[in-house]
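Researcher: Can you fold this with C2E in place?
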Amino acid sequence: MEKSQVIPTVEQICALYDFLSPCMDNYLYFYDVKNDYYCISENAVHRFAIPATRFHNSYKVHEQFVYSEDYKRLLSLGKENDVIHEIDCRWLDKKGMPVWVNCRGKSVHDDEGELIYVIGCVNEIGKEQRADNVSGLRSATLFYENLEKRLKRGNIKGFLMRIGIDGMKEINENFGIDYGNMVLQRTAECVQSVIHKDERIYRIVSDEFIISDFSGRGIEEATRLYKRINWMLGRFIQQNSYDVFFTVSAGIVLFDSLENQSYQNMMKLSEFALNASKDNGRNQYYVYDEADYQHFIDKCRLAHIMRQAVNNDYEGFEVYYQPIMDIVHNRLCGAEALMRFRSEETGIVSPAEFIPILEETGLIIPLGMWIIEKAIQVCKEIQKTFHRFRISVNLSYIQVQKSNILAQIIDLIEQYELSPDCLMIELTESGFMADSPKFARFCEGVKEQGILLALDDFGSGYSNFRYLFDLNPFTLKIDRAFTVKAIQSEHEFRLLRHMIEMAHSINLKFCIEGVETQEDLTKICEIEPDYIQGYFFGKPVPLPEFLQRHVL
Ligand code: C2E
Ligand code: CA
Ligand code: CA
């Protein structure tokens, strides 16, 4: 220190530290070298394994809270003649866990040049940021701290709204990071301009914000807030002549609806709520509902159980076979292979429930292959007594899009020496597939190989004639729901009759699903379909039962 400067006394410095400690996140330290007397601000004593704010015998005491590997390096501090020193090292927290800190200080010498004090500041290097410079908002760390503070005061009322920018990844990829940052900033500004004065907004992760309202407002105010945010964003986009375009989704969690008001639980549920609004189609809000969450958890559990089953040699999966009748010649012509799953924990699960989960998790890819191989094996076996028996298998669009399914099917056909026209691939309609080149190549490849294609569930969901002509399948399968309507309503029945005529005029075969009774059969036969599949001729059953009832 320069001679003209006044050196404060030890008491003065220690008193100043006591004043400053509550106002700081960092930790100030001071070492009186001559008296081997150490002083550190009080907040450090709360955080680290430091026994007291003031102590003698400094080096010995440091051994208690400095990570052993770093202790030796610390001993050299201040002994060198550098005026400023800096070191990164680990201090032990109250639980004995190492925490990275940066100690930066200054050595103070007296008039004779003798070292008298070391004075400085400790920062936690790994400590998360408390504010975010891109959005100009408070950070997740601060949200955590504020929530914890509120929770200490007891049960809280109000809501959390987690907001996500839809398609942020695509925005960054297509327009660049700067553009993405601008979208984030504008969203933050729009939200800030409409929130109530006692609501707070934080940036949680890259493209998500959270608004906390601890003032007891409820669902109506929360949804109104979302609409205001959307309106503000819409106005901003309009003012910019649609140069920028993006939408936001929101998940709302009402504190009242939560039994467990911990930070972890709230983050988990708000994330679930936001994902739900995105899954529902984005650009909307979703209010957390316990029953929905339970359903989601059950789905995750089922996915887990099925993944284990797949890894355990498909244990629990079975194939059932349902007869398909050639109604023109009044005889059995084949069967549809249908998947079943059962386990001790879940009992029997319906494919309507588990197929979408297999698709979401990608497990449909190994299982889809598994059922095709089983079906081909069984078909080949049945053909020993029933010449030209035909087997139908369902294929999910995921298998077509994300695996090399055609090559695998061709391998299997060759391996089992099955005639390709004894395998029928059933595909359902989906708007998504219509324009996919991979899907078009797959269908072409299937037909080139001589494998038969069926367009399944015709008359439900998308019924796109362009798709039908593009696909040009061998058979059109009418969804059971449509069959039921046609049996009940003259109008639908006439429609069905015309559909069959149209199909026959372009050489398509027509299969009607869901014929359950003799009356259904009599009625349906009036319009002369080619094939019928329904409970009247047989429900899907395990292979031995199928053989006994329909083949032997
Ligand atoms: P789908 O392909 O339309 O299969 C026909 C469904 O209708 C079967 O239901 C069958 O049991 C049912 N069904 C047939 N005739 C009648 C009837 O007369 N009355 C009634 N009430 N129902 C009848 P299931 O086996 O429950 O399968 C449901 C759906 O799950 C299937 O509909 C198919 O989309 C899917 N699925 C089943 N197995 C597989 C598979 O291995 N892979 C794929 N991707 N999907 C599968
Ligand atoms: Ca089918
Ligand atoms: Ca069907």
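Model: Folded with C2E in place. The first strand starts at residue 27 and ends at 32.
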